[in-house]
Structures are given as structure tokens and as C-alpha cells.
# Entry
Amino acid sequence: MTMGSDNGLRPVNGEITRTHLRHVVESQQFTVPLLMELFDRSHEMERIVRRGGTLDYQNKIMATLFYEPSTRTRLCFESAMLRLGGRVISTEHARAFSSEMEDEQVEDSIRIIGGYSDVIVIRHNEEGGAKRAAQVSPVPVINAGDGNGGQHPTQALLDLYTIYRERSLEGLSIAFLGEMDKGRTARSLAYLLAKFDRVKIYFVSPPELQMRGDILDYLDRHGVRYEIEADASKVIGEADVVYQTRIRPDRVSDQPGLKRYRIDSSVLAKMKKNALILHPLPRTVELDKTVDGDPRARYFQQARNGLFVRMALLTMVLE
Amino acid sequence: MTMGSDNGLRPVNGEITRTHLRHVVESQQFTVPLLMELFDRSHEMERIVRRGGTLDYQNKIMATLFYEPSTRTRLCFESAMLRLGGRVISTEHARAFSSEMEDEQVEDSIRIIGGYSDVIVIRHNEEGGAKRAAQVSPVPVINAGDGNGGQHPTQALLDLYTIYRERSLEGLSIAFLGEMDKGRTARSLAYLLAKFDRVKIYFVSPPELQMRGDILDYLDRHGVRYEIEADASKVIGEADVVYQTRIRPDRVSDQPGLKRYRIDSSVLAKMKKNALILHPLPRTVELDKTVDGDPRARYFQQARNGLFVRMALLTMVLE
Amino acid sequence: MTMGSDNGLRPVNGEITRTHLRHVVESQQFTVPLLMELFDRSHEMERIVRRGGTLDYQNKIMATLFYEPSTRTRLCFESAMLRLGGRVISTEHARAFSSEMEDEQVEDSIRIIGGYSDVIVIRHNEEGGAKRAAQVSPVPVINAGDGNGGQHPTQALLDLYTIYRERSLEGLSIAFLGEMDKGRTARSLAYLLAKFDRVKIYFVSPPELQMRGDILDYLDRHGVRYEIEADASKVIGEADVVYQTRIRPDRVSDQPGLKRYRIDSSVLAKMKKNALILHPLPRTVELDKTVDGDPRARYFQQARNGLFVRMALLTMVLE
# Structure
């Protein structure tokens, strides 16, 4: 309360939190101080969960309103709320179940369900659905993914937290492998990484699926160095983090060439000894099961970090 | 415990509660004293929720057994139980999911699930389903809607509570707009209103969708005044409450005439200055979004009142 | 802690519990001492539930991961966890809802959801699915049924507990009526019964649906007496327990003969006066509703016992 403000940062930071974290709609809304507060809290949540503790949210209700199913994301959010001591009401597949939900404008649903809950986690099938929800909601809204071209900010936040836990974000070198043009994950994380100094990004993808101009322009404007590559083996040895994502084979003409974007034992041999291997999961063939035993694999930890980051986000929006 | 019974009413009332509120199957089972007890409790729940409190139901389990989905009703009941401190087990769509549930007689399912819970909230696809459930259940049953021609008593109760919170039910003037013949809402609420003195009801509907004889006969027998109208503009200025419901366009021959049953700014101008506008939601075109900003609009509050009324009902059947 | 070990049994028993009840995958893994510990705990759970109490599991989360729906089993497990004071995250129908869940290997799903929960209850559509889950899970796994030819161990355990509560398992005489060849219930319970002395089993079934050789060989090796019968009336008077299961009519050539495997008033007249009538439910025509009123009927109690046995199992794997 009466803490010194010798550098002016903490109180401002606190203000930012209270002002800007009413809703979580897109990753761009997170400033560096807000990210650091989120990560401090996430780390604290990790400690609480490890010792089997809980927090004091027993009178708070989270509604998970999923217009399309996303089982792992939903279960992660629900676990996060329960680990805080809170309670959950839930719909797994609102659109398929309920003509009432389909007919109804999302705005009306949100106004109603906002009367039954203290925070709404929404997965909407249309880009912009979460933003529309936030504009009318009487309670905080967290975007758990909206549309294919939309945002999935909590995925990007847990990705960044996973790196932050083990590496300095400043001066980080990261290689993305997979579909860049439609890869929501790589796109969102690129936005967040651009907030940190001296980051270097490698986009490794078949040419027809490469990262689109909007992100590259954004990186240019923010002075972020990047390289466009078609062959993972050329850059894989440079990366502190190798972030693998899926490639749908039907989107590529050169099918045999797909092996250049897969991680197997020969690729492992070329990586830095202390690199981190990430993947948003689920995986298909692009990430071989033999990688699971490699000490650099972090994708299951990454999934688990989603719990801590979502717990932290919930504490911030419920404040 | 040893309270006086100077007027004989409270103990009797208490008896009625304990005797008659084992199950909630249809709105007709509610006497005026029981309604008043319910509304007193609902108001108390409103206060508890507003101050972020809870009650002492942590060892009670509510099962929501929905043979067909009704997402908003289910989430409202679940929130109500959680706000009481209780716990919930749930099935969103028993019929579609589970051949076992489809094959099985509802009586067997209820006997089994009654062994796992302290109260069952049932939504059944057949008229009379809730009554059949109540006849065999080892625990209280609450009807959350059964069939199209059936009952949805908690909707009628929350509608009545919404009016009661702001107006005297005695001498009330109310206009129903929309489909009267198949409108479960208007039919159920008419039954409840007939219990109060000097009520005046306007049924405003295209002639082919007007209120059926069974309700009109019931109102005649109970001395309730009503008028049958085909044009909202003629009576809208008389109503303390305007209760709007949906009209399915394919049920009407005079499509352009449908606008006579819609609420927009020109209709608003004709209403009483302190009228209340209700709607069970979801809405389609019959209730324009511009009405949302009108100080007389109460439909979102009405939905939220469902929480308090259902909390109150749960406390009554769990006693 | 410092209890005597005069017979060497309890500490060993305790060891077995801690060693062997990490996961519950198949009924064969249960030794007699482990069964006795389970049943002691189940009985204690019965007492706790009867007095409206709860236990101290408020910081534990159970995930119910049902790849195909089984509403009653899922609700029973969820009620069990809530009655312990614990919390639940749930998916009713993972396979239908979620392409991500369908594409993904069950191993990856389990590793991820094991990061969000303290125990996973899995219903998998393929035989062996639960075993695969247990092999990689970071938390205990309980099999709630896997495939048609697979196991459903908690059903067999609750069946055995229901008998144990009222009869000595040693010297027990039991008649199974119904489909023996594909009847998961009869098969699993036969395995468990073979662990007790002087058991006599009657398999009563149309010849083409009789018990298969693998079980009969197993019983031979364990010295269990059994008889193969095609007509219930010949043996029904000998049985302490009559365990009825379903026969799908399309699997039988002699349709009129099916009545020989049904329980109605004439069959009731031939049973022992203190026999117990069990059925896993749901039922179709093979178990007449008139039996419900017979004092020997135990099938609803049997379903309810599932709650106590599953509570007990959860306490054992969460230790």
C-alpha cells in the first residue's frame, strides 16, 4: 500500500493490471510489465499447486462457454479455476447442443450467463466472437480461441511462460517449424516476442506455407530480426527454442519434402545441447515419439504450464 | 421452534412447504402463501449473492439430468446450486449421448441417479416426464421443462418474481404479445396470475395463434378479466407489464402483419412510463435491440432473477 | 503405525495396497486381502454418506475422460469424488466432440490431462485403452470400461460388494442368467468369485450364447464348481444369488425360448426365500417391473453400492 515508488514501475504496473486486464481478448494487449506480473503470478501458482494448496476463490464461479469443443483447453481452464478453490459451470459444445444457443446472438448469451458467473471463458467459432462478448459482458471474458484466423492468447502466453521459465527472453533465438501462414500459434507468439530486445526468429516452412506479410511487416517495424527458411537442417543448430507445429500434408505439393520439417533423432543431433523443444499438441507425424525421451523436450511441461498461467490470469481478472 | 401461532398462518405455511414442496412439477402446485415464502427466500438469496456470500450446502449434490439440451436453464440451475455452496453432477444431452439412457425407462434412471444425488433437476423431452420421475424418485425432483405441451414451472416462477419485485401483483395489468396457443410461458404465468385479485390480462396475438379455451375457461372460473386482441397498439398503453414472446413466422399467414407484435421505438412511445418489458429469451426479431437501452427493459434482470428463484427453490426442497 | 503383525497380514496387505493400487485396470489385479480392504472402506463410505458427512479431498481433482458416453457410470464416479469433498473436470463424449481428441493418441491426452488432475477415470472405446493410459499416466488411472471385449472392473467390484454385504462369499451359490459369451459382467465377476472357496456357479444361457472356454478353463484350474444350463427353472432354486443380464433377441434363434431366461412371478416362486436378485441395469424385458417390489430385489441397491465402492477406490489410489 505505502510501498516506495523509487522507480515508478510497480504502482504503474499495478494500475495497468487493474485497468487493462478486465478482459483477455488478444495477445497484443499484454505489455511487458503486465507479462512480468502474469509470469510472477504463474510461478507462484506453480508453487501452490506443487504443495497441494489452494486459494480463496470458493465463492467465485467460472463459466466455460464453448461454442465448439476444445477438450484439453476447457479442462485446463476448469482445473485452473478448481485449483484456485473456485467453481465451474460448463458447456462443452453449445452450438451442436442447443438451437437456442445457435439462434441467439452471442451478446445475449453473454449478458445472461454473465448473470450466473463471475468470469466467462469463451471459445467461439467466429473470428471476433470473444471481442463481441467482452463488449457487452457484465463480468470479465477470457478468449479461449475464436475462429481459425482469430486469436488464442492464452496459448501464446503459456508458450512464452514456458520459455521464460528457463531462458532469457532478451536475445532469444527461436525457430518455428511447420505451417506458418495459418499457424495461429506461431503468429501469436511472434507478436509477443517482438516486445523483447534482440530476439531472432527463424520461420521454417515449405515456401507455399510461409509466414504472411502482416507479421513480417510487424517484425520489421519493431526491429526484430528474422529469417525465412525452407530447410530446418540449415538453421536448427542456431535456435535456443525449436517450436514445432503441424503441417497438414494436403496443403503441400512436395510430400517427400515434408520430412525436412519433422523432428527425429537426426534433427535432435543437430540441435543445441540445451535447446528447448516445444509443440502446442496434439501432434501427428511431425514430432516423433522418440523425442519424448530427449531431455530437451518440453511440450508436456508446456501443456502443464497452461494450468499455472490460466490460474494466474483468473486471479488477475477476478481482482 | 416454539413460535406462537396467533394467526395460525406461519405454521400452516411451514407445513405446506414441507408437505407440498417435496417436488416441483407444475406451477399449479404453488399456493399464494407458498409463492410468498418462495419470493421472500429469493429476495434473501439476492442479498447473499450481492455480498458474495454463500450458504451451507457443501455436502449436497444436485444432478442435472437433461434429456434434451437447454444450456441457459441448466447453467442457471447449476450456478444456483454452486452459489448455495453445493455441488453438481450433470448431463447436457442424455438422449443423444447415451443409448443406455434412451433405452432405459426414465423411472429406472431416476432411481439410480437418485442414489448418487440429493436433488434431481430434470429436463425431459416428453410431456409428463417430470411427473413420472417424481413418482419414483428417492430425492426431490425439479421440472426444468418437459415436452412442448408440458410445463416449465421455474420459468413462470421467475417471471412472477420479476414482476413482484417491482409491482403489486394485485390489480396488475399485463399484456402478453406473441404466440399464445403454444406459448408455454404465457400459459403457465396466466395460471399463477389467476391466484391474485383484480388482475387484468391482454392476450395480443394473430387470431390463428390466440390463447386456447382451456386457459380462458380457467380464467373465467377464477374471475380474472381478460381481453383478446389482434393489435398491440390498441392495448399497449394500458399494461403495467408487457410480456413479449416469440412468433414463428411460418405459423402466420399475414407476414407483414407480424410487425404489430414487435416492440420497437414506436411501440415504446405508447407504453406506460413505468411499464416493465419482459421476454423469456432467446429473442429473434420481435424485440428490437434498441429496446435494451430503455429504462423499462427488464429481460436481462428477469434472466438473472432465475438464479435467485432457483436458489430459493433448492433450499426449500432440500429442507 | 506400530501395530502388531501377529499374522503378517495387515502390513503386507497395506504394502499390497500401496504397491498395487496405483491404477485400477482389470479385476484380476485384486487379491482377496485387497478386496477385503476395499470392502471395509466401502462400508465406511456408506456410513459417511448416510450421516451426510464428507472427507478431506477438497484439493484433489478427478478427471473423467469418457471417449464414449456412459452417463450412469460417469455420474456415479463424479458423485463419489464430490462425496469425498473432491472436485471434478469432465468430458462426456470426447470422441464425438473433439477431432483433437480423436486424432491424438490416448497416451498424449493422458499425459496432458494428468497435468491437470490427481486421478483420471477413463472410458475408452478400444479394448486395452485403459492399460495404455495407465502405462504413461503421471497420476492414477481407473478403468471405467474399455471396449466391448474389455474390462469394467469397478462394475465387478460393486457386484461382489453387494453380495458380500449380505452373504458369505465362501460357499456361495450363484446363477448367471443371460448372454454368457459376450457378457462382460458375468465374465469379470466369475474371475473374482474364483478367488473364494467352495463357490458354485450356474451359467444359464441359450446354448449358442454360453460361457466361453477361457473362463471355464480358468474355473477348472482354480477348482471352482460350475454347471452349464439351458433352462433357468432347473437350477434357480439352488442359487443364493440370481444375477440377471440382458439377452439381445437378435442373437438367439429360439425366440419363444427366451422366456426361460426372464424373471417374472413364476420364477420368483421357485427362488430361495432369501436369494438376492442382481442386474447391472439398464434392463429391457428380461427383468419384469413386478420384481421391483420383491424383497429379494437388490439391483437398485447394487447401483447405489457403486457409489461407495468407487469412493473407496478413489481413497485407495489417491493415498
